[in-house]
């Protein structure tokens, strides 16, 4: 289970061949995100800057981050 501050949203979307993680911060501080995707077992770690957004795409076959934006 991932615990993040109240001003941070982490939202996974399961797609056919991948899982898209959308992360958005309204928090005044940088947030450390360290999670393991339940579907693929892939680990996602990043520093989400204050008041920024980021995207991460995890491939179901690759079981790793195959594309990212914002970090």
Question: How would you describe the overall organization of this protein?
Answer:
This protein has one domain (8-69). By secondary structure, the chain is mainly β. The chain is 0% helix and 55% strand. It has strands spanning 8-14, 18-25, 31-36, 43-48, 53-59, 65-69. It is elongated and about 35 Å long.
Q: Which descriptors would you attach to this protein?
A:
71 residues; mainly beta; four-stranded antiparallel sheet; two-stranded antiparallel sheet
Q: In a nutshell, what does this entry contain?
A:
By secondary structure, the chain is an all-beta fold. It has strands spanning 8-14, 18-25, 31-36, 43-48, 53-59, 65-69.
Per-chain topology:
Blueprint: E1 8-14, E2 18-25, E3 31-36, E4 43-48, E5 53-59, E6 65-69
Antiparallel strand pairs: 1-2, 2-5, 3-4, 5-6
SSE series: EEEEEE
What structural class do the secondary elements suggest?
Answer: mainly beta
Q: What number of structural domains do the residues give?
A: 1
Could you estimate the helical fraction of the residues in percent? under 10%
**Strand residue content:** over 45%
Strands, count: 6
The radius of gyration over CA amounts to: 12 Å
Given as residue ranges, the uncertain stretches (5+ residues, pLDDT < 50) are none
Counting DSSP H or I runs of 4 or more residues, the number of helices is: 0
- Sum up the overall morphology in one term: elongated
For the termini, the CA-CA separation is: 22 Å
Mean pLDDT: 94
Main sheet strand line-up: 1-2-5-6
Largest sheet: 4 strands, antiparallel
